[in-house]
Request: fold
Amino acid sequence: MTRKSGQGNDEMHGTTDVDVIIAGAGPTGLMLAGELGLAGVRPLVLERQPQRRDTQKANGLGGQVLRLLRLRGLLDRFEAASTGPLHPAPRYPFGDVHLDFSGMADPPLQGLHLPQPRLERLLEEHAEEVGAEVRRGHELLGVDREDGRVAARVNGPDGPYRVTARYLVGCDGPRSRVREEAGISFPGTTYPEINRLAQITLPDAVTLLDDGDLQVPGLGVLHAGFTRTEQGLFGIGSLGQGVWLVLTTEDEPVDRDDRTSMTPDEFRDSVRRVLGADLPVQEWIRLSRYRHQARQADRYRDRRILLAGDAAHLFPATGVGLNAGMLDAANLAWKLAARLHGWAPAELLDTYQEERRLAAARTMLHTQAQVALRRGTDPAAEALREVFLEVFADEQPLRRVGALIAGADVRYPQPGAGVHPLTGAFVPALAPHPTPLLGPARPVLLDLAGRPEVRAAAGDWASRVDVRTAETADRPADALLIRPDGHVAWATAVDEPAEVAVPALREALGHWFGAPPVTEG
Reply:
């Protein structure tokens, strides 16, 4: 159990013992804390910043994590705090072209406009409700390995102290102290572009035209979307309610300290270099500067130290990092909890690295493709972009790349041969959907066909696996064994004989959720 920080200076200057230490109170760390709390583990989150960040590093949440939040029964809460309802993404920036999903009845990408400070507040509130503790202004200085435990050296507002735990998870970003202390390398590429981002409002002198373009005094018609010039890339798009998102990209091979804040003058100068003219601004809401990087830690686990989120991977395109990091957390949490509760199969925790490195590789694939679309300036590059848009004018390739961006196409490898096509994939949408299907973050055996022999086969695992029944149109299988992170661990085909389905189910239960508990009698 985590001891609360208000228990006195003597303890804070001594040694505290917890289940899991999480370094970093960003979305990944807070998501992990909430997932662990749901699974009956009490984590301690250490965050060096004394206050919650007010910088809108991300404007919203999109991708597969929204489906997981729905299964948890949390999506309504997040949607209520957003600036608008959950919505399909009609257009999505990909490199410096836009994918147009507006003609689809059920586009593969959905989004929620939820600025990052608000997202972090919601995640922190949920984590604390399920038993996590978040200590702000507590900086992790170093890590020591002890017999069967890991110890964090921490500097807090009242001075230095130590915390010990069974596991330590680094969710502390691209400059991860945890990753450095574990000796895990972070190979990859830093691209030379400097990307400057601003959220602004425009003065009344700027006219919004019927086609979405802007009539700007002294500049003329400014096209919505991306404009490429010899000096770089300019982009502008509406965020609604009179707020605009503006981007410039320029090659600047000289290193710049991105930790220094960008000023309005710096952004104006960049716009002037790229467009050759000034963009009038009424109000500055947000300013940020970043470089694109493509990096992945060579491993996500070193014994009792693990990595998640930006500490484990950086992608050279925006809009995907939150989704990837929060799904890392969901994958890791139930496996860590299983180890702490003593029933995890021997290799279960190793599957975190195997599965999430695979997912990151898929994300790296499409984000590096975006680099190729974005960087080229010669006629061959323009031809590539034109061909790309022609191909994705057709629904099937557009749907496929949309699922790739959302992280919805990830299918984790499964043991055995001849497994059902759904195994390893995220649980399919069912109508009507039995929500919250995974509210307690426990495995679920979902019987869709009224098969008592299948439900009975899970009886020995009743303390670990919930059994539920549901009806759905055009059922994809007779029954699904669903892991706490929403991925299917086993499925039986429609009308598959019991003598085939039941042994396969029991094998899957043992593989993922350990040997059945021994009951006294």
User: Anything to note?
Assistant: The CA atoms of residues 15 and 87 lie 47 Å apart. The radius of gyration is 24 Å. The first strand starts at residue 15 and ends at 17.
